[in-house]
Amino acid sequence: MIEIQTDTPFGTSQKAAVIAIAVGGGLMPALQPVLLGTLLAEGRIDAVELGRAATAEGLGMAISVTLASRFLSAEHLRWPLTVALLVMALCNMSTAFAGAEGLITLRALSGISCGILLWLILGMFARVQDPARLFAIYVTAQSTSAFLLSATISNFIAPYFGSVVSYGMVAAFGLILLTIPPFIPPSYPPLHGSGSDAGPRPTLSGLPGLAAIFLYMAAIIGFWAYLLPVGEETGIARHHIAQAMSLSLAVQIAGGLAACATAGRISAATAFCASAAASIAGLLLAISGTLMGWYLGTAIFAFAWIFCPPFHIPFLLAIDPSRRSALFAGSAQLFGVSFGPFAASLTVQPQQMIHVAWLSLAFLMGSAMLVIGLFIQRLSSLKIGC
């Protein structure tokens, strides 16, 4: 039996430093419609390459956070994070000048470095008493940063200076984060009695929960990465798409605050199912072909995107009290982040971008069915909640 230490004290400044670094690692999926959309508009990539670039970045994040969870030591945390921040900044700057194939490689390398940054906060989640609340604070900070960057890039940078300065701005943000590593904990205590973090694997009982998380994130990012071409195909003007995107990222802040307020007060399964239902409603509104539907649908979709993930770890803790599956919540999320755009890229055809939306709809329904199935299965013996 794994003995998880959840009462380990972290100072407020240490938590803030870890959250700041993780924000830098988790920003790119939210900024993909702006950054990759700018490259698409400039003719530097096509729609299929857009999906491949988003997939490469997400897959790099998923693989690195999984391998880091298995093999990186929780001691001497500062130097690998400093290297990861530097690599991320260099990849973002180099993307501005690369061709299509080199660009995809650079996005993969950027994803690998971002995964290391996210591994840091996942390790903290596993060591605190209330991971849902800390997760909610993190996604609120990330949403706020994504909103500010996206609004600045889409309204003031990309239209006048293009992708070069847009990616340069993101690279500069990464360089600023290089001042943060001295403030993070120098090491984390071990999660289990052996004194090492390597070794734990998810349990069979936790696998359906991990699959539900995977499908949810695949649905969200698969649609979000193609927001620009899908919107244009449904008759929405490009400037309205950009404005709706900025509004949606602002709404994400509200989603994070709502998660902060409800963490510990509603069951994780309820939050999960409600988020899936809201995402389905938002998606259908967004592709309805009306301007009001687009604004309202993308806002609902963005709210649910950020509201749900803080409940993923409590959901896994409920179906697998050993906490072994919870250690892989980040991997499930990030593999979903990478698989969604890849699967979507297989459906795109000229003038047929709407297939992306139907694929995301199917993933959302599959995720909700898994959660409901687990709830029904364990209703008599286990309360799924946080």
Order of helices and strands: HHHHHHHHHHHHHH
**Poorly predicted sequence stretches spanning 5 or more consecutive residues:** 1-7, 193-198
Give the helix level as a range of percent.
Answer: over 70%
| Major pleated sheet | none
Name the shape in a single word.
globular
Number of strands: 0
Separate helix tally? 14
Could you tell me how far the N terminus lies from the C terminus, measured between alpha carbons in angstroms? 21 Å
Rounded to the nearest angstrom, the radius of gyration is 20 Å
- Which CATH-level-2 architecture? Up-down Bundle
Structural class: mainly alpha
Strand proportion: under 5%
Describe the structure.
It is globular, with a radius of gyration of 20 Å. It has 14 helices and no strands. It has one domain: MFS general substrate transporter like domains (Growth Hormone, Chain: A, Up-down Bundle), CATH 1.20.1250. The chain has 386 residues and is mainly alpha-helical.
What order do the helices and strands come in, and which of them pair?
Elements: H1 12-26, H2 28-41, H3 47-71, H4 78-95, H5 100-125, H6 131-176, H7 207-225, H8 227-233, H9 238-262, H10 268-286, H11 291-307, H12 312-319, H13 329-347, H14 355-378
Helix pairs in contact: 1-5, 1-6, 2-3, 2-6, 3-5, 3-13, 4-5, 4-6, 6-9, 7-13, 7-14, 8-9, 9-11, 10-11, 10-14, 13-14
Defining traits:
386 residues, mainly alpha, Growth Hormone, Chain: A, 0% strand
In short:
With 386 residues, the chain is mainly alpha-helical.
